[in-house]
Amino acid sequence: MAAIDGPAPGVAERARSRGWTETLHDWVATVDHKKLGLLYIGAGIVFFLIGGLEAAAMRWQLAFPDNDALAPDTFNRLFTMHGTTMVFLVGMPIITGFGNYLIPLMIGARDMAFPRLNAWGFWMFAFGGLLLYFSYFGSTGLYGAGSAPDVGWFAYAPLAGKAFSRGNATDYWILGILISGFGSLSGAINMIATAFTMRCKGMTLGRMPLLVWMMVVVSFLILIAMPPLTAAQVMLLFDRFLGARFFDTQAGGDAVLWQHFFWFFGHPEVYILMIPGFAYVSEIIPVFSRKVIFGYAAMVAATVAIGFLSFGVWAHHMFAVGMGKGLNIWFGAITMVVAVPTGIKLFNWIATLYGGKIRFRVPMLFCSAFLMQFLLAGLTGIMLASVPFDWQLSDSYFVVAHFHYVLIGGLLFTIFAAVYYWFPKMTGLMLSETLGRWHFWLFLLGFHLTFTTMHVQGLLGMPRRIYTYPADRGWEIWNLVSSLGVVFQAAGVVCFIAAIALAFRRRVPAGDDPWDAWTLEWSTSSPPPAYNFAERPEVRSRRPLWDQKHPDDPDWKYE
Amino acid sequence: MTRLGCALALLLVGIAARAAEPGAVQTPSIFAPVSAPSEAIADYAALVIGICGAIFAVVVALIVVAMVRFRARADDDGREPPQVYASNQIELAWTVLPILIVFVLGLVTARTILALQKDERPEGWLEVTAIGHQWWWEFHYPEYDITTANELHIPLSQAEARRPTFLNLQSQDVIHSFWVPQLSGKTDVVPNRTNHMWMEPTQPGLYVGQCAEYCGTQHANMLLRVVVETRDEFERWVERQQRPAVADASLADERALFERTACINCHQVRGTLADGRFGPDLTHLMSRATLGSGVALNNRANLIDWIAHPDHLKPGARMPAMQLSPAQVERVADYLVSLE
Hints:
Oligomer: heterodimer
Helix content of chain A: 55-70%
Order of helices and strands of chain B: HHHEEEEEEEEEEHHEEHHH
Largest interface: A-B, 96 and 96 residues
Strand content of chain A: under 5%
Shape of chain A: globular
């Protein structure tokens, strides 16, 4: 195994002397998986800030009953754009970015299998996102109607049809998502090909780091789940432009058909976003517990099982549409079964903690909160899978609380953990531990103020997506607390951005392996050179660096 | 578990109760059920919450114990802890145990679904067809041949004389969802389909709810009020609704003015020229407590505001401002407030 100390002599000097146009050209024309990974993550963080501002505006409107800070249509656009942004322009690029950055490094490869496809995918994603936001200016079109889309992020038919959604706003939603979807699809193909064909010598499938395994499962989910969405969106375009009648109920089309298409994509999408979170945790918890992951094979099996099950549960989003008893029972039961492999993962993480020497550095703090928050998210998921209970909870604030527990308490916390964990590798610089702790505690407090209370609003009968509510419903105090939480979350995010900015000013060198970790990315320099490894590594176990650090007690003896 | 349900219900109701001020509506908590299906759901929900709560407590305790007990100490010797790779027995244990819990929960769920999604209807059931519109509700009572809007009146169901209400749910435009949490779970209102739901209220009173599926600009103000009345009160209400519209001779001019406006293209007042079907039936407008699907109280001042500028009370409402002069608006309102 060769550790590279830095770029070849002279390269750094030349880089420093180059003008910004050349640097820009470098980033725009790059096919390097690391640069593309950073571009994905960076773009995701920018969209995250935009989506967060949209959420803050909505919470301002909902802080008080009968508030008129925002007009109804403005509010409806905000929640549509917030949901669409957070799922397609934040979650997807960030998980693709980490996958892109880490997979080749973790399997000892020099790049992804298809570097140019990789670059194409990123730019398709970026233009898709810009197209969606261009709707704020462009979608008025010839009709003089509309601005940004206001049909909700799942754009239910027939509301998204021509009769009820005039102007071009919905078309921007369709095309923006469809185009950014190409980025996800090409990324998925690339990650599968890379993991299956580019592994270094000795790295069998059974020795791949869990992160790589999980990203492979995610990639298969993307390959299967995205096409139905794309197909449905094309059908909706046909409805809107070519006089087709798929979803046009006024001409005999079927409104529920859209829901089947959308959720056949939409539910696997939840796992597409969540499994990468599991992946980061599965890498970070062992390192900070100083123990090997407990039950590697069970973790892989549970991930694959979740992948399969995720395609059999989509109609649990539709318990209220009037399905028959048989379908309700089936989809409720299969959804509950998902709890089994998910539980296996949670128990394995706890078993990894057990008997360790846990170091509560910032990445580990985020992982610790993740464990408990994701547990609660899973349990409210069971409640939502309990069909009769769901007849009350569906489309209420309880659902809003549930999926924010999944996507923030679960995914976003792990993304923060991943940023703090891999930032030293990506830049060669350490993030401030102090600011990281401020970020963690403020965000934790804000998150719970905002979203733990939302469960109560839901149980008290408050439906989602309402721009206002009367003062006599008993929801006032809960909504006010939810809105107050935004202040703390925003303060946490400010610390996060400040930590990143400060890292580039202070330039505290990280070294190649600041966390004393065990996977291959830590064996090369920080940041890694363009070619990753001067000499391709050879491994004998799942933790090659453990073997190197403990030649007397290597892993390969036990695996 | 029912006891736990009661405790939860008390907690949630108690927290939210600014209860029983006259005129104030009750918080539509799902744990304050007053109807057979919502009571069954609340009991079942308490069971599910109980099971999930127990799991939460146990697993959080495990996590906290592991984190506290195995945190790195200040006097750590720097040696790595023993590496434990896997254990098939342990994996098996925490696979089988959740399967058993899921199995039991699945059976209870199936039983509750079968009990609530039932096909047979007891003697004496009341049929109501509810039609969702952007952004208001239309109600037909085929038995009595009456039509009203936004405020549903249904009879109390008593053990000795059951009278559950079965709703046929239809939509005029996009998908809506009928949700009055204290009376029943929600059911979507889907165009080109007829969905069904039932309520069997056991306490008289006013229960509020609203559309629960996003349906466009004024989704938030597609409110629902359900008035549960004793058998006699309900019969009296029906009898009043069946009467033709009040024809006050002293308001003949006002009525004539109303009949000349475009109002009649969308609104019906039985026994007059007004026979539109696009908007709410106004035959007994003043028997309703609210305007604009619950957006404002139904009184002359709000009515004038509503007729002159529908966008003022409910921005985006489908009712257009008819560009009447202020004097004309007053006279149309004079006629409408006579429609008791």
